[in-house]
Amino acid sequence: MASNTVISALPPALRDLVGAASPRDEDFGVNEKDKTEVSEWISKVAQGDIVQPSAVKDLDATLTPKTYLVSNYLTAADVALYGALHPTFSQLQPPQYYSHPAVTRYFDHIQTRPPVRKAADALAPAFALVTFDLDNMPKIERKAEPPKKKEKAQNPSGDAKAEKQAALSNKAEEPVAPASDAAPKKEKKEKKDKAASAAGGASKKSGGKSAPAAEDLGEPVPSMIDLRVGHIVDIRKHPDADGLYVEQIDIGEETGPRTVVSGLVHYIPIEQMRDRDVITVCNLKPANMRGIKSFAMLLCATSKDGKEAGIELVQPPLGSKPGDRVYFEGEKFENATPLSQLNPKKKIFETIQPGFTTLESKEAAWVDPVTKSVHKILTANGVCVAPTLIGASLS
């Protein structure tokens, strides 16, 4: 088999681990691109330099935005890297592994995957389970860069591409952007520009600066909501609330996973939450949930007969990966840019939410309350669905 050739350069114990945990051809990549990347990573592991102490810092940076080394699924490359890291990580104390949070998170995630754990236990004690005190690990701070006002000034014509990039950047910045005296001034100026535009006297400069905000002035539309594919890389129960989970969700951001608090303990078992692809609402205002700040919300389907009749996670289509854009079907919505953050005072999500439902096909959609037109919730790979619920409410 080709897989035997790929792992032949690995040390014997590591080769046995990879062979046992990755018995299928698909474990070495489902397409030619993935196969090449898996082979390259295994070669790096075989050379040994990638797991040297001097290289762990670079590895930490590489793994920060990733759940797996290749694409969005477990491969033989992950098994090989986990096995190569094991001798070092099994000896580390908290202050040491706390200094490499992304590698620690990755190592702990891979070692608990069922095929890896089964293979590792069979080869015990060489790859015994390593326990980490993750509850006390310092959180990765999301440091927002200050607004690039000069760059905006250089685009007085309202260049659409530049404005879209600015909106995407703001999504990552807004949850932790500190309050400042400049914010009210900017808001007042935007209101002044909007008023001038309504009177027919707005300049190109003001129109270019406030396109997303101008959209905020009209009736709420679903494309204002920033939906993205996420992947749950870690989950635990809230230490101070029996009904809450605290998840770490990878949504493809360089800053790493977002902390999300969800009230699903009494409805979805934790085992069914682990390692799941999900849909996240990313531009709600961060909320403090019993002492832990939540930076997004999971999109769930609730039975038409109520919560006690069932709640399910809305699932992205196969082939989705963290960070994939989720949008609403229809020319009016598909290419629209979401707001960087929903203004809670304007109740945008609350206004749109009653139209969220699952169709007879269990596909997730928004139904326009006025025209009754149906707009499915999509990614580039297909339609998002609820596993079993029909006519469910999404929130």
From TrEMBL:
Residues 196-215 have a biased composition (Low complexity). Gene3D superfamilies: 1.20.1050.130, Nucleic acid-binding proteins (2.40.50.140). Residues 1-147 form the GST C-terminal domain. Residues 139-219 are annotated as: Disordered. It is found in: Cytoplasm. Its main location: cytoplasm. It comes from the Eukaryota. SUPFAM superfamilies: GST C-terminal domain-like (SSF47616), Nucleic acid-binding proteins (SSF50249). It holds the Pfam family Arc1p_N_like. GO terms for cellular component: methionyl glutamyl tRNA synthetase complex. Keywords: Cytoplasm, Protein biosynthesis, RNA-binding, tRNA-binding. Residues 221-327 form the TRNA-binding domain. One of its GO terms (biological process) is translation. PROSITE patterns: GST_CTER (PS50405), TRBD (PS50886). Residues 139-148, 183-195 have a biased composition (Basic and acidic residues). GO terms for molecular function: tRNA binding. PANTHER family: AMINOACYL TRNA SYNTHASE COMPLEX-INTERACTING MULTIFUNCTIONAL PROTEIN 1 (PTHR11586:SF33), TRNA-AMINOACYLATION COFACTOR ARC1 FAMILY MEMBER (PTHR11586). This is Nucleic acid-binding protein. It comes from Sanghuangporus baumii (Phellinus baumii). The lineage of its organism: Eukaryota, Fungi, Dikarya, Basidiomycota, Agaricomycotina.
